[in-house]
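Hi everyone,

Forwarding the result from last night's run.
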Amino acid sequence: MDEAATRRLLEAVAARGAGMVPATRGLAGAAVYDGRALVTAPAHTADAGSMADTMGSGDAFLAGFTVSLLQDGWSRGNPPAAAALERALRHGARSAHDQCFVEAAFGHGRPTTTAGPTTADPTAAVGPRRAPIGRTGAHAAE
């Protein structure tokens, strides 16, 4: 999605009541619309062959983005300036990048030689499965 289309989409979301609308755009980077302007930042790229897993990278982006804004003093009464938004986008991109090097498949990822368990059993690091809440009896540990 090009920048003009991104802006239209984010403006439409903001028109529904969101005060700030961030979006990730893969290799095209990230953008945020704050009701005044569209701020963009480049992607933080990595060699796909060296990545372990992309699961959780969107969550990591939002966490890094939010933490950066909070560190810059963002609050409901203190909206961030464009420079703070760009820093937050870059921080989010870095956080998402770093997450790509973590085996994140809900504790059932494949073992690696660089991190994690060295046993052939990928569940060895997380222990036995526990029953969902409310399940008891013979099927509880399946």
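Confidence is low (pLDDT under 50) at residues 115-142.

Cheers,
N.
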